[in-house]
Automatic annotation (TrEMBL), chain A:
Domain Acyl-CoA dehydrogenase/oxidase N-terminal: 2-92
Key words, A-Z: FAD, Flavoprotein, Oxidoreductase
Sequence ranges assigned to domain Acyl-CoA dehydrogenase/oxidase C-terminal in this UniProt record: 193-316
Name of the protein: Acyl-CoA dehydrogenase
Cofactor: FAD
Family recorded in the similarity comment: Belongs to the acyl-CoA dehydrogenase family.
Pfam families: Acyl-CoA_dh_1, Acyl-CoA_dh_N
UniProtKB/TrEMBL annotation, chain B:
Superkingdom as given in the UniProt entry: Bacteria
Protein name (database record): Acyl-CoA dehydrogenase
UniProt xrefs under InterPro entries: Acyl-CoA_DH_CS, Acyl-CoA_Oxase/DH_mid-dom, Acyl-CoA_Oxase/DH_mid-dom_sf, AcylCo_DH-like_C, AcylCoA_DH/ox_N, AcylCoA_DH/ox_N_sf, AcylCoA_DH/oxidase_NM_dom_sf, Mycobact_Acyl-CoA_DH
Cofactor names: FAD
Keywords: Flavoprotein, Oxidoreductase
Pfam families: Acyl-CoA_dh_M, Acyl-CoA_dh_N
Domain called Acyl-CoA dehydrogenase/oxidase N-terminal: residue spans: 14-127
Source taxonomy: Bacteria, Pseudomonadati, Pseudomonadota, Alphaproteobacteria, Hyphomicrobiales
Domain Acyl-CoA oxidase/dehydrogenase middle per the UniProt entry, residue ranges: 132-226
Length: 350, 386
């Protein structure tokens, strides 16, 4: 595993290693590992990393929180850590205290909008909401407000992501929020999408790191034609390409995380960072997953093997908080609008 | 795990932003004075002597070298900014680039003091041009198959044989070359090559130009017939060039010149598409910009690691692999995206002409400086596979 940078990430690394070992989880069909894992993440303050202490969180820095997401990506397990962190972050923008327990955020689909009604209730439909069925609360952006919604007040249609994680449709029919506040300037649906896209980018990069390490390891174990397959040049080149895609994803995601950690307003350069991260990490997920499966041969295609935890999740994460196609169109429009002579200054702005 | 890849999000420090402004202002003046056309990658005068001198005067050559050799003791990141601004502007850098990037650092490390005192300041002043003599007709990827011989004689060596694909040999004052000084040993087939500084005016050296498919002439065949090289022009250890040549390559591999060679096609596409692109164009441009941004962040990250004294050999190879494949595909993607651009776009003719040139240039990008296949072998070694 990659070395981590700070004590918060180390804590996360240890918890995942102890309680979410990939092999154990794979054999535990009942999912009885989930509760103790969640409990440990919550007790150690990781789930509310981005919530300041006066909002009942652990007040971790943005940067440390981002590194927790990288760790979560490398672990590749089905637990709403990123979603709860995002919800806590969003609520904190409106100075709303975070409740305990699993949370998620809405909207997560670029085409959905929630509206704040005249009577203070919220209505609308939000599709592709990760872990909505498991979450106790949903943090939402509606118009220019941030609100905390009790999940039991919503109608939830179950759905599943490519990786088999909950990805649900949430219907709000004049739901009265538990708490509501005006969103500060710059915090709107787009800002939530960008933060979500960045979170997914870090998770995808993390999953790619694991794909690379288990593929390299497997190639050193599997023997064919009386040789370890790692000795075949074609296999080496595939793994080199996987290392390249992993590197690109890591570089793009950590650059964007670094940019967001400095708390600047979302200007064109920051938009470029987040959008580029989601686009490039999603492309890397596609190419990387294909190679990881190729190297593993048929065994990697089985439900028994752990590979699909990382490959399918990385592919699924492409769809949350704006797909790479969506962000590419948005970024392309921005670039075209600025004009040809502003392209290089934008790219070279950091 | 076997290899933890690191790409720290290095940011350029404030002094780089100041420098960037200065470089842009300088280039704007040069463009206004007609030194070169930034919209034209096809530079007939890519070895512009006067331009080279003016860049030297600005203090932008040998930027990281010690002051006593005419250098400026600035950072790799500052050098990085100068390089990328020159590339993006299509400035005529051919005369000084190899010396600044590669030959100077080799001399700094391995040349005797009096040679450093003589040659390095001239590089810094932009007065001299270098070429690199590694490849031979039967020794490209397999560098250790090189046969051109350096035979010991009184006070020096006599060189016989030939080098090929030598960029700029026809305009170069010097070449840094590897020659065979003894046969390879059984245990080590890399043994027996030595690095030399060659004055191109030495009798017995003949440079034969080789035309390229772009219609340009950049590389050459160089034939040596009893060419004499004095003893003090030997660089580093006798028979030990393989160690020296491989560490040299980290610098050659990860710079902005490794993904910006066809960049101009992207700018022209944005110009042709105009401020209100349709969805197809917007998406295509967005993806290319995301990829470019990512490449650059990777490349800056490696520059930062070099600055910190690390040796990111695998990361540097990855940047060259991804970067050169990207710059090779770029003109083809731009061509696809340009298919529905309005014929009346003001720059349509320029775009077409640039695309023709970039598409012809593209095949070499994954060959020069070590092929994709060879790079992937290096990355595989870094991953512990061999
Ligand atoms: C524009 C340009 C400028 C150049 N400038 C210089 C210069 O200034 N100085 C200089 O010394 N050289 C220069 N070169 C030469 C360049 O370094 C070589 O072309 C390169 O190293 C490849 O060698 P080759 O052309 O002999 O191809 P070969 O080595 O014959 O390779 C042909 C093909 O076989 C593949 N191959 C070879 N070995 C292996 C292997 N072990 N595993 C898998 N595949 C393999 C290669 O990847 C390639 O695809 C230049 C080349 C170009 C195109």
């Amino acid at each position: 595993m990659t070395e981590t940078d700070n004590i918060v990430a180390e804590t996360a690394e240890r918890i995942f290693a102890d309680l979410a070992d990939a092999q154990t989880i794979n054999h535990d069909k009942q999912g009885s590992w989930k509760a103790p894992l969640w409990q440990a993440l919550a007790e150690n303050g990781l789930a509310l990393s981005w919530v300041p202490e006066d909002c009942d969180g652990s007040g971790t820095s943005m940067a440390e929180g981002f590194s927790v997401l990288s760790v979560a990506g490398r672990a590749g397990v089905s637990v709403p850590l990123a979603e709860t962190m995002l919800a806590g972050w969003l609520l904190a923008q409106g100075k709303i205290k975070s409740p305990a327990g699993m949370m998620t955020v809405a909207p997560a689909n670029t085409r959905d909008r929630l509206t704040l009604n005249g009577d203070g209730t919220i209505s609308g439909r939000a599709r592709g909401i990760p872990f909505a069925r498991e979450a106790k609360h949903i943090a939402v952006v509606a118009g220019s407000s941030i609100a905390l919604i009790d999940a039991s007040a919503c109608k939830i249609d179950a759905g599943l992501s490519l990786a088999g994680d909950h990805s649900d449709t949430v219907h709000l029919d004049k739901v009265k929020p538990t708490a509501i506040a005006k969103a500060p300037a710059g915090i709107d649906e787009k800002a939530l999408l960008l933060m979500g896209a960045l979170a997914r980018s870090l998770q995808i990069a993390g999953a790619l790191e694991t794909m690379l390490s288990i593929s390299v390891q497997y190639s050193g174990e599997r023997v064919a034609f009386e040789k370890k397959i790692s000795k075949f040049q074609a296999v080496q080149h595939n793994l080199a390409k996987l290392a390249g895609e992993t590197s690109a994803a890591l570089a793009a995601a950590s650059s964007a995380a670094d940019a967001f950690s400095h708390g600047a307003p979302i200007d064109d350069a920051l938009f470029l960072e987040a959008a580029a991260a989601k686009i490039r990490c999603s492309e890397a997920a596609e190419k990387g997953a294909a190679i990881a499966h190729q190297v593993h041969g048929a065994i990697g295609f089985t439900q028994e093997h752990i590979l699909h935890r990382y490959t399918l999740r990385a592919l699924a994460w492409r769809d949350d908080f704006g797909s790479e196609s969506y962000w590419a169109v948005e970024l392309g429009k921005l670039v075209a609008n600025l004009g040809a002579d502003e392209l290089w200054p934008l790219v070279a702005s950091r | 795990m076997t290899a933890a890849l690191r790409f720290d999000p290095i940011r350029l420090p404030p002094e780089c932003e100041q420098l960037r402004k200065e470089v842009r202002a300088f280039l704007a003046d040069e463009i206004a004075a007609g030194t070169f056309d930034p919209h034209r990658p096809v530079q007939e005068d890519a070895d512009n002597r006067e331009f080279s001198r003016r860049v030297g005067e600005k203090g932008w050559l040998g930027m990281t070298w010690p002051k006593k050799y005419g250098g400026h003791e600035r950072s790799f990141l500052e050098r990085y900014v100068v390089t990328e601004e020159m590339r993006v502007a299509n400035a005529p850098v051919r005369r000084f680039f190899v010396a600044d990037r590669q030959s100077g650092p080799v001399l700094l490390k391995y040349a005797p003091e009096h040679i450093k005192m003589d040659i390095l300041p001239r590089i810094c002043r932009g007065e001299i041009c270098f070429s690199i003599g590694m490849s031979e007709p039967n020794s490209g990827s397999d560098l250790f198959a090189a046969k051109t011989k350096a035979t010991k004689t009184d006070g020096g060596f006599l060189i016989n044989g030939s080098k090929i694909w030598t960029t700029s040999a026809h305009i170069a004052d010097y070449m840094i070359a590897i020659f065979r000084t003894s046969p390879p040993t059984k245990e080590n087939r890399r043994h027996g090559l030595t690095q030399f500084l060659v004055n191109m005016k030495t009798p017995g050296i003949k440079v034969n130009p080789i035309d390229q498919i772009t219609g340009q002439q950049e590389f050459n065949e160089v034939v040596f017939t009893d060419a004499f090289i004095p003893d003090d022009h030997m660089l580093g250890e006798i028979d030990g060039a393989w160690k020296q040549a491989t560490s040299e390559l980290a610098y050659e591999r990860s710079g902005p010149e490794r993904f910006l060679e066809t960049y101009y096609t992207l700018t022209e596409l944005v110009r042709a598409v105009g401020p209100e692109p349709d969805t197809r164009s917007a998406e295509g441009i967005g993806r290319l910009v995301a990829q470019l941004h990512t490449m650059r962040r990777m490349s800056v990250s490696v520059a930062g690691m070099l600055q910190a004294g690390k040796e990111p050999v695998v990361e540097a190879s990855i940047v060259k692999d991804i970067g050169t494949v990207w710059e090779q595909q770029l003109p083809h993607r731009v061509r696809e995206l340009a298919a529905f651009v309005d014929d009346n776009a003001s720059n349509h003719a320029t775009l077409d002409e640039m695309l023709d040139f970039a598409i012809k240039t593209a095949p070499k990008l994954t060959i020069q400086g070590g092929t994709t296949e060879v790079l992937r072998g290096i990355i595989a070694r870094g991953l512990g596979l061999r």
